[in-house]
């Protein structure tokens, strides 16, 4: 009744989506040097930078705060003082630190990102949410 054909089509579409998702970005030695120098400026302050980024993100996109169960329903003042925000912000900054440290080992970083993505898959995150976090509007 078309079930095997439908399953084959779904599998082919999933494989194609996976191929499209694997984009390799190569950096020049100069770009790597700029990233390393910039990270050296941020690294000592990564905890406060991470917290500031999240606070700004939630200020600009208040509905996105509800995507984080641990932040749901918190006022801005409560959010500023919660240790949970510091913890999540610290983990995000550690992910950036891992990216910087892995610039010459894309395979290892790709595996890390796939694991991170799998852990975040259970949340209702969409591409638009992620783009909003990195693109000024």
UniProtKB/TrEMBL annotation:
<dbReference type="InterPro" id="IPR044399">
    <property type="entry name" value="Mb-like_M"/>
</dbReference>
<dbReference type="GO" id="GO:0005344">
    <property type="term" value="F:oxygen carrier activity"/>
</dbReference>
<dbReference type="Pfam" id="PF00042">
    <property type="entry name" value="Globin"/>
</dbReference>
<keyword id="KW-0561">Oxygen transport</keyword>
<keyword id="KW-0813">Transport</keyword>
<comment type="subunit">
    <text>Monomer.</text>
</comment>
<keyword id="KW-0408">Iron</keyword>
<comment type="similarity">
    <text>Belongs to the globin family.</text>
</comment>
<dbReference type="GO" id="GO:0015671">
    <property type="term" value="P:oxygen transport"/>
</dbReference>
<dbReference type="GO" id="GO:0020037">
    <property type="term" value="F:heme binding"/>
</dbReference>
<dbReference type="GO" id="GO:0019825">
    <property type="term" value="F:oxygen binding"/>
</dbReference>
<protein>
    <recommendedName>
        <fullName>Globin domain-containing protein</fullName>
    </recommendedName>
</protein>
<keyword id="KW-0479">Metal-binding</keyword>
<dbReference type="GO" id="GO:0016491">
    <property type="term" value="F:oxidoreductase activity"/>
</dbReference>
<dbReference type="InterPro" id="IPR000971">
    <property type="entry name" value="Globin"/>
</dbReference>
<dbReference type="GO" id="GO:0005506">
    <property type="term" value="F:iron ion binding"/>
</dbReference>
<dbReference type="InterPro" id="IPR012292">
    <property type="entry name" value="Globin/Proto"/>
</dbReference>
<keyword id="KW-0349">Heme</keyword>
<dbReference type="GO" id="GO:0001666">
    <property type="term" value="P:response to hypoxia"/>
</dbReference>
<dbReference type="InterPro" id="IPR009050">
    <property type="entry name" value="Globin-like_sf"/>
</dbReference>
<dbReference type="InterPro" id="IPR013314">
    <property type="entry name" value="Globin_lamprey/hagfish"/>
</dbReference>
<dbReference type="InterPro" id="IPR050532">
    <property type="entry name" value="Globin-like_OT"/>
</dbReference>
<feature type="domain" description="Globin">
    <location>
        <begin position="26"/>
        <end position="137"/>
    </location>
</feature>
């Amino acid at each position: 009744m078309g079930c095997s054909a439908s399953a084959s089509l779904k599998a082919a579409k999933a494989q194609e989506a996976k191929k499209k998702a694997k984009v390799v970005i190569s950096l020049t030695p100069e770009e790597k040097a700029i990233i390393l120098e910039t990270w050296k400026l941020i690294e000592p302050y990564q905890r406060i930078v991470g917290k500031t980024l999240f606070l700004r993100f939630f200020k600009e996109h208040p509905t996105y705060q509800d995507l984080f169960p641990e932040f749901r329903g918190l006022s801005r003042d409560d959010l500023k003082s919660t240790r949970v925000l510091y913890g999540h912000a610290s983990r995000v900054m550690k992910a950036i630190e891992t990216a910087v440290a892995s610039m010459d080992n894309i395979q290892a970083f790709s595996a890390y990102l796939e694991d991170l993505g799998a852990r975040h898959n259970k949340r209702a995150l969409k591409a638009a949410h992620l783009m909003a976090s990195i693109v000024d509007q």
